[in-house]
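Thread title: Can someone regenerate the structure for this chain?

I was given the following input by a collaborator and told the matching structure tokens would be attached. They weren't. Posting the sequence so someone can regenerate them.
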Amino acid sequence: MKKLTIIALALITLGATSQIVEKNIDKEEVKTVVTTKLKEQDDKLDPIYFQHDDDKNASFIEKIGF
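Best answer:
Regenerated them for you:
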């Protein structure tokens, strides 16, 4: 019973956190970044690589997308 309570609390906490983050995201800014910074690839057989302006100086958090 204790394990189920912990799992339920964890799920509720994750759900609440995702709702807070979703409300705080500036959707227009995300749209601007996606349209200006991400480029299409010419060849569909190449591996996917989203080219950013400054990959070499980006921190680990920026490289994984946060």
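The two ends are 36 Å apart (CA to CA).
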